[in-house]
Amino acid sequence: MRAYAPGDDVRTIDWKVTARKGRVHTKVFREERERVCMIFVDQTQSMFFGSRLRLKSVAAAEVAARLAWRALAEQDRVGGVVVGNDSLAVHPPYRVAKTLARYLGDVSRYNQRLARGAQHPGSAHIAAAIDRLCRLARRDQRIYLISDFQTLSSSAPDSGPGWTTDHWRRGLRTLARHNEVIAIRVCDALEAELPPADLYRITDGAARWQFDAGDPRLRQRYRDNANNHADAFARACSDAGVRMAVLTTDASIGATLASL
Q1: Which residues contact 165 (CB under 8 A, 6 or more apart)?
Q2: Distance CA 144, CA 185 (A)
Q3: What are the domain boundaries of the chain?
Q4: Phi, psi of 211 (to 5 degrees)
Q5: pLDDT digits over 49-101, tens only?
Q6: Strand 36-42 vs strand 25-26: parallel, antiparallel, or unpaired?
Q7: CATH 1.10.3470 correct for 36-258
Q8: What pTM does this model have?
């Protein structure tokens, strides 16, 4: 609403405001632009882990689904990328429940393909998925990245023109240049701190190891490694101007969504 100026369309005059103010006022209309929501979901092998309540892959799938339905309820177009161990699924954004169901169907299928003993695809595969998301994204979009970001500091061959081995940092900067980006790091309490002191035997489905969790030096190295990874994630988000959130496997999904 503003004061009437010569040349304004008389049909937009608001007579109630004019009577109240004692001066002619006119309505000013601004076209409402629809928002696009893109959701990147990591369903690779490092996500197939969890010691409390749910696996990281399940937590990521659940928060992705709830973000997607929330965006559709707000009349936004929804799309994204789902990356698994051996392939990825790319979904352009649409404002249709049927296409959203196909996207969530891929999230579910990639989740169910995870199995004990499978090999992690490595940094190059993740880098290729981030590259696809960067090519799919445009401007003024809201982009969610849901992952444990385990490859954030890993080295890998270049995955495409202009891409460096520092794929997560490069991807965050590229996406945040013209979009609102929210990075959600999914983690588990056992990744931050070893279990109580004792001798433990562990396996990845193929090999077996034994370690003494009571070794103070081992516990400190383990803790330092987890802290370094968390710090690297926070720095990467800060440097790119990206909002960040942390979702633990035993946390409330609803509480996490409320904070975004």
Answers
A1: 123, 127, 154, 155, 156, 157, 158
A2: 11
A3: 1-30, 36-258
A4: -145, 155
A5: 999 999 999 999 999 999 999 999 999 999 999 999 999 999 999 999 999 99
A6: unpaired
A7: no
A8: 0.84
